[in-house]
Write the structure tokens for this entry.
Amino acid sequence: DAGVIQSPRHEVTEMGQEVTLRCKLISGHNSLFWYRQTMMRGLELLIYFNNNVPIDDSGMPEDRFSAKMPNASFSTLKIQPSEPRDSAVYFCASSPPTSGGLGGIQYFGAGTRLSVL
Amino acid sequence: AQSVSQHNHHVILSEAASLELGCNYSYGGTVNLFWYVQYPGQHLQLLLKYFSGDPLVKGIKGFEAEFIKSKFSFNLRKPSVQWSDTAEYFCAVIAGRRALTFGSGTRLQVQP
């Protein structure tokens, strides 16, 4: 089992550029969560999907952020245009159907460290 | 709305000391409770969970947690910490129909 796979592991970009973060779920999992972690704000839930449907996007900071699940095993988080304050580690996590769609038992990816200059 | 409070932001202990990290939640109904751990430079991993039954839950690496419903608490304990327990610990709760909510985390530093 390969676990949750995120790419890239590190991303350095300039302010104003578009950034796309990618996440592959564990096979058979049906819930997907995107988090942002910073020293100042800790771990924040941005958005989560259940069966490819966005359930709660109230944590998405602005319209510059968007997330999609084009299929059951893959998700993207896009920031356009990026700003220095978006610099953080972005984690995705997946959860099996037995967690009831609310993600109690989550398996985290290794994260993408984003630096916006 | 549910919330999770971890009052200890940073804890420093010597090896072999006992550990107790506090976690309180605010929700009057049925809850599912979790502790996750994040070792330096790594992602979060599940440490233990409580759904129902025995309120004393045992997890990996000698950790345990006790659910005390009357106190809305789910404190994490370990009788004797090791240097390798240095990490950040997150309490989390599922309450009602809201997805898992994490506390702000407690950074544990164990000194050899």
